[in-house]
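To: structure subgroup
Subject: Chain for Friday's discussion

All,

I'm putting the inputs and outputs inline so they're searchable in the archive.
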Amino acid sequence: MASSLASVLCIGALAVPMSTYTPQAYADTYSDLVNAQNSHAQSKQREAALREQLAGVNSDLADKIVELDDLNNNKIPAAQAKVQQANSDAAAAKSEADAAAERLKAAEKDKADLEAKIKQTGEDYDDAHAAVAQSARESMHGSDTSDVMSVMTGSKDTKDFIKSMQSRDALARNEANAASDAAVDLNTSMNRADRLKAIEKRVEQCKNDADQKSAAAQSAATQAQQEKSSLDKLRAAGESTRADLENQKSSLTTQAAQQAAQTVMLQSEIDAKNQQWAAEQAAAAAQVQEPEPQGTVEAPAAAAPQPSVPQQTQTPSQPAQTQRPSTPSQPSTPPTPVVTRPSTGGQGTSNGDYGNAYAAGQCTWWAYERRKQMGIGTPSYLGNGGQWWSTAPSYGLRVDHSPQVGAALSFLPGQEGASSPWGHVAVVEQVNGNSILISESNVAGLYTITYRTLYNPGRFWYVH
């Protein structure tokens, strides 16, 4: 029956006004402004501390080191956040565009169906009368017909019954029309010519809505591409700057300058290797999703070889102690990490986990214990807290600037008050938008667990 048309003809757009998709805008609150000011102040403090380490270094070389540090800790994380938001906006816009396209498709089908009926029986054919008559033929038959008609409607014959039922049907439709304007356009009380005009009007509305949402989706996708392009340019600038520093680092004569340059270059290298790993994972996932013509599925690329297992030299009851540099003024340089594919699909790894081998009561000891409580494996020999971010990738652990509950936050030497020679490590307990809550040991003494809130969490390194 023609009343079914109302179920597919942009009814959603009638009940809820059509609107063109636009990315959601957020007003800056007082806390947003304060956090932005704090972030700017922290960046200035970080730059000042870095330049102090680079005292006496050629100004051009010092500027390159500071530039790479700014890329690592400010510009690239900010660009990553913009890419994530742009991708989210593009996905939402595409979803709305797809829904609008489906509504248009359904409306066009109903138009075609009605045109076919008009071609068969004409545009003046009374669908309502025919539907009620058919109902009478199917249900009102046999010797009791006249009695049923008389009881239900007071009709004396089938013709009177049909007229009475049409009146009742019209009354029911009028009541429904009061709740939905869409039914006024499409109910069967209208003749086919009028209904066709109503459907054509609805098709036009659906088409306009679909065109607007399609344009919005295209705009959002373009914005996402632009943000991604900006991020790629920043990363390319980081690669170029790091290559220049590699060629000039031999001119750094002081231990402090060498340590500063090495730390900044390692940060850049970790980011590059994490991106390479992410690209490999995406390629492997795409291979799994694309079936072979014969119906088979291509397996993902083989995982990179895992690092060799270190020799266990002590019994489990006597865990090995983490070796610290012989003199605090000359900390050991963290080894250059080699990123391998994780041995598990999520946080943590059993690779290199031989029990808590860290100095009891220290920050590293607590990070291992707390992650174990959360069901997250941690390698036993990641070094000092400030080295975890650089050594973890060699065990197959992901390292990035995205906080996650259970992740180990590896502070660089001097960052947020961390020890200059050894750095510090804590565990993320909560992620709250632009802030995180961490737990840590040995800030107030051995075995003393304390908590604090840190803002702008994207500037830190997290070991997952």
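Points worth raising on Friday:
Residues 1-28, 171-186, 291-345 have pLDDT under 50 and may be disordered.
Residues 28 and 317 are 54 Å apart (CA to CA).

D.
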